[in-house]
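go over this record:
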Amino acid sequence: MAEPLALAFRIATVATLVGVPLFALRTRGRGYAIFTGVTLGFALPGAIVTQARLAEALGARGALVLDAAFLWGALATVAHFAHLARARLRPRSWRALVSIPAQGYIAASFLAGLFQLGLLPLRGALVLADAGDALAALRWLDPLPYLVALLSVATSALPRREWVRVRLAREGPPVLRRAPFERHRREPQPTQGRTLRLVQISDPHLGPWQSVRRMQRRIESLLAHAPHLVLLTGDFLTMEGRGSPGALAEAFAPLRSAAGRCYAIFGNHDHEAADEVRSALAANDVRLLCDEEALAATPAGPVQILGADWADRGRRERLHALLAAHPRRAGCLRLLLLHDPSGFHDLPDDAADLVLSGHTHGGQLGLVSLGLDWTVLSRSRWPDHGLFARGGSRLYVHRGTGFYGFPLRLGVPGELSVLEVVVP
């Protein structure tokens, strides 16, 4: 039985590599065909190599289970990418049996391909050295990428609930640096001074991993802490969410209970369905700020909120125009909503007391789960997560509630947090 399943897996994989891009070209166009061809071309060779190597190491019963699992992954991948040609949100059964297994399988297979390439020089050296025992021992490393992917799925699906306390200051370092702040797993003891309580919703990415009901429950849990303001910093959809008119409005429904306290900006993905996002926000009394200003009265005092629209080009000029059009208001705390935190580099030191961003998903790959700040973006131009300081401005980068597409949050969980801003 194992051999027919293995053969069926290989046939399904080759058919996927060839057939899905052709189907995508015919049904959705060149861009989607290129996306599917590149994604599958990088991932599926890793699946073929890993399945063959593991089958050699397992007995007949183990190979049967292995081949069935890989065949399921291959068939789910075909169904998922074919469905994306006319993407829309699907019922829970489809998500559980097709979308989630397919995306997890592709992510794991991509890692497996990189892993097998990395081991190739070592295996070659062992073959030349006639070190058969060592070569056989390496075989037990082959499932490692799939085990890592399983951990990644768990990390990706379960954002961490946190309380974050940030203390503002009128001075700071001359260059951008990571700044100290407090993270708590439960509500901390009250602190002295004026405190503004915020909920930031960033990068929820309504889709297979973030259903309408799940997004509603998460928003409800945050609103239960009675925030003074609810600030949405963009990237609300995936391809599936974008193809389901009205779904985002339904997912945002709990925000109606905070009417008059909710403000939002567009992220990069929101411009792919700007009318859908705009109507979803309006339906739930969320004010969208597209290079605009809002004034909010809060128990912590008046707050001036600037919302920067996403801009791929001319960002620096647009940000400076926004700041010039809306100078600081006396006696107001000044917040700036800026989806991409790399835009902080384009701001003057005194642009805002606090800038709130998302976009990076916390860096995606790092050691945050272990309590360390390091991620793959730590040395990049992108501030990855947490609090940063430069001059009198502070930047808080939210790790995001969800992710787009493949579950590749490795050691960087999503974030469901209440943010307490202590005003000097």
